[in-house]
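Shall we go through a protein fold together, starting from nothing but its sequence? Please make up or recall a protein chain and show it to me in full. Go ahead whenever you are ready, and we will take it from there.
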Amino acid sequence: MLPLKYPRVWLGLGWLLLILVMAGSVVPVIVVKGFSAADKLVHGGSYLILVTWFAGLYRRQRHVFIALALFALGLVLEVIQGQLPYRGFDPFDLLANAVGILLGLILAQSVLVAWCQRLEGLFLTANSSS
């Protein structure tokens, strides 16, 4: 993990995001027939946020592991959905998750490198100059 002033807060918020994604994956939803672009955007956006969040807490060497772990989570959640009478397995959800993860990795490796550390630095600098 990167040296952070509030690592428990950042990790706690990250775990809260994970719990929200997991809960959202197993609760009943209104089923819409056919391809739902909005659903795929929610999948991709959720996993983009997750990978970007956790990549901001860890060194670059851990980013691929984070991405693979999140893809595995998405796969497990899809399998669980396939077992639920009110949900179903959708390979396009997995694809949307993967696209979100890939875009999140690109952001985490470029413009959002160590975003969490930088954000703490901004707050600490702002508080010390007050």
